């Protein structure tokens, strides 16, 4: 088996084999977690569905906006009918005004991973929130406790010097991290400045020092990308599709429910731009232009973030390549790693799912059967 990519980074129990995986590798503690990452609009969520179907597993979402209930169109949550019968976890967890952070996400995700591993299944984590992915794959560095007095001083400094001041200051103190943040991402910028000022070490360096120190499972990191011009065309098209699907109405309804634009959830792409339009700050064409522009900038920051991880195996797709073809390439790579194997009738299957009753959807396995999944809104 040609396995140059990942054997050196896998634990001994996983890399010592050169043939079919042994029973030792099927023990829950030895099972890996597959991460499918990349920029927005590259097709991660939709490619993940046939991959999860082939591996008979579930999708765990790593998206900091999809955790909010009632925010569906702007976060591009796959509709239930488009999920191919694959359970999607870690979405619709909290209300838009409920605090949610990386620590809470990691705690919830680890529970889902433990459940799937106990069933002998390999989870597929899909998303573009780099901090969620990094915390889950490599551990979370908690850092110093919040200094609320310092945070207030920084907030006042931003008001006094104008929007973007703190981001520019962060660029001088921690340029690698600043390149991954939007100048309006106030919470993350303030936290990064707080850590750098209190510890004397940039937050990006703390993350680098901490990396791999808390790795509870083997990680298979796969990145999807494509030609930038093609990606930007896809982003522009997706923005128009979300508008056709009712993004303005969804934003109007959230505002009517009392979810103020100052909430972190309402500053997400789509909702921020549509709120500005609804409040009369600019016209319709300008709202669309801003959303397309800001989404392209966001995709660029995501690529910068994920390219900083040397363990990512990148798959570059062509603009005319179908999602099924891309999924096939992902599965071929997983076959090289010994995670998937060609099935006798064609396609692929997971080597982790061989025991009786372990296939997802079987009653009593995976926490719920198909009828229960429909009733819970997860299938």
Explain this structure to me?
This protein folds into two domains: 7-140 and 214-228 and 303-376, P-loop containing nucleotide triphosphate hydrolases (Rossmann fold), CATH 3.40.50.300; 148-208, Histone, subunit A (Orthogonal Bundle). Residues 1-29 and 351-379 have low confidence and may be disordered. Helix 5 (148-161) crosses helix 8, helix 10 (228-245) packs across helix 13 and helix 12 (271-278) packs antiparallel against helix 13. With 379 residues, it is of the alpha/beta class. 45% of the residues lie in helices and 8% in strands. The protein contains 15 helices and eight strands. The relative contact order is 0.17. The strands form two sheets. It has a six-stranded parallel β-sheet with strand order 3-2-4-1-5-6, sandwiched between helices. Strands 7-8 form a two-stranded antiparallel ribbon.
What's the structural blueprint in terms of helices and strands?
Blueprint: H1 12-15, E1 33-37, H2 44-55, E2 59-61, E3 88-89, H3 102-118, E4 124-126, H4 130-138, H5 148-161, H6 165-173, H7 175-178, H8 186-199, H9 203-210, E5 219-226, H10 228-245, H11 247-256, H12 271-278, H13 284-307, E6 313-317, H14 323-336, E7 340-342, E8 348-350, H15 370-376
Parallel strand pairs: 1-4, 1-5, 2-3, 2-4, 5-6
Antiparallel strand pairs: 7-8
Helix pairs in contact: 2-14, 3-4, 5-8, 6-8, 10-13, 11-12, 12-13
């Amino acid at each position: 088996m040609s396995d140059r990519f990942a054997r050196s980074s896998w634990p001994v129990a996983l890399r010592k084999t050169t043939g079919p995986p042994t029973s030792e590798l099927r023990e829950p503690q030895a099972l890996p977690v597959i991460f499918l990452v990349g920029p927005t609009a590259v097709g991660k969520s939709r490619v993940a569905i046939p991959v999860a179907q082939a591996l008979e597993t579930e999708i765990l979402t790593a998206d900091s906006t999809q955790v909010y209930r009632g925010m569906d169109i702007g976060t591009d949550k796959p509709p239930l009918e488009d999920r191919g019968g694959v359970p999607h976890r870690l979405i619709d967890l909290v209300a838009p005004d409920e605090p949610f952070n990386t620590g809470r996400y990691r705690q919830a995700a680890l529970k889902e991973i433990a459940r799937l591993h106990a069933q002998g299944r390999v989870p597929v984590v899909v998303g573009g929130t780099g901090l969620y992915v990094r915390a889950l794959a490599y551990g979370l560095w908690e850092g110093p406790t919040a200094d609320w007095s310092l945070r207030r001083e920084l907030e006042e400094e931003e008001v006094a010097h104008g929007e973007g001041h703190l981001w520019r200051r962060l660029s001088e103190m921690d340029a690698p991290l600043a390149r991954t943040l939007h100048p309006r991402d106030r919470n993350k910028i303030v936290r990064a400045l707080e850590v750098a000022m209190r510890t004397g070490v940039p937050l990006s360096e703390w993350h680098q020092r901490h990396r791999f120190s808390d790795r509870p499972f083997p990680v298979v990191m796969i990145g999807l990308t494509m030609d930038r011009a093609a990606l930007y065309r896809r982003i522009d098209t997706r923005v128009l599709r979300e508008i056709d699907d009712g993004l303005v109405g969804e934003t109007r309804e959230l505002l009517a429910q009392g979810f103020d634009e100052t909430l972190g959830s309402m500053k997400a792409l789509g909702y921020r731009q549509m709120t500005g339009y609804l409040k009369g700050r600019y016209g319709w064409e300008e709202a669309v232009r801003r959303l397309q522009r800001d989404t392209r900038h966001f995709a660029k920051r995501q690529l910068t973030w994920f390219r900083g991880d040397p363990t990512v195996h990148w798959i570059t797709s062509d603009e005319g390549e179908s999602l099924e073809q891309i999924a096939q390439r992902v599965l071929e790579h997983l076959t090289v790693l010994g995670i998937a194997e060609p099935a006798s009738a064609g396609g692929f299957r997971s080597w982790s799912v061989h025991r009786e009753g372990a296939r997802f959807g079987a009653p009593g396995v995976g926490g719920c059967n198909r009828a229960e999944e429909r009733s819970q809104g997860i299938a």
